[in-house]
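are you around this afternoon, could really use another pair of eyes. what follows is a protein written twice so to speak, once as letters and once as structure tokens for the fold. i want to understand how the tokens follow from the sequence so walk me through it. anything you notice is useful, everything is just below.
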Amino acid sequence: MYLDHFQLQEHPFRLTPDFDFFYMSRGHARAKAYLDYTVVSRDGFAVITGEIGAGKTTLLNKLISELGTNTVLAHISQTQLDEFEFLQAVVSAFGLEIAGASKVELMNRLRAFLLRQLESDRRVVLAVDEAQNLSYGVLEEVRMLSGIESDKTKLISVILMGQPELERVINAPQLEQLSQRVRLRFHLTPLTDEETQDYIRHRLQVARSPRLDLFEEEAYDVIRYYAGGIPRLINTLCDMALLTAYVEDQSTVSAQDVKLAAKELAWPSFAEREARMKEAGTAPGSAASSMGHADDSPSGNGADDEVQVFSQTIEQAVENVRVGFEGLRSDLQAIERRLAEVVRRLDER
């Protein structure tokens, strides 16, 4: 609606990951360098974490778009899988047949494929997005895959991208071998105030805006107040602010427009959002990279959390069985009484 009004050629703040709009903050530049190194290194293993909306998927799409013909990549984004399903997904992503194959057959096919790529001097990369959803069992499968090797070299590099809890999971005692296999770790933090302004102006420039001062200076403080430097939140808020300014027939976006946009979205301040997330155990900074973020060490014990959840699941299952048996007992007793009544009446005849 507002494109013509502001003379924009594209929507500057779409939520869909689009590497054409990719903004290289200092954090994203470092994470991208780690990813590039992982691709170049045949035994690379990188873990990149970041808050929801921090730009992890866009970063991965940027990497994929730049891969040459000498690199073969399997991109897994569906991570609610068990061990066998995950292996099937990996083998299928490399273009191999999986129908009717056992786990042993899948592993043999994958190893043969990796050896063929090595002979052709191609690098092979497995990239998993939303990796925080992977179970311990699947992460152990990832470790096993990363260990596939020839006589002289590893055959596959691994990239895991996920929310901060991924770091906590990998640091669990059960996954010590996996944790030691990781070569590079990095946590994407929110954009700084300066980067937030550069980010917005960059996206306006890519959308071919005739002016980069479309947002008034005072508006940036309000954007920071509500979005906290998270790119996805910035996009949503700026999109609504542009619409608000358009409805008011204004040529620029003021601080008041941003406030009205936040009100329309029913947003709390970012500090309030962060506090709510902290209560739920998913706050920004609740887990972080062990490289360059020493003050943001992982909190809590992922292993204990999973054991507790598993224990509660078992207890609930036992309770369901108990209730089921009690219900069955009552039904049997009712049938027994009914049969006794039938027998009594037959005897009376």
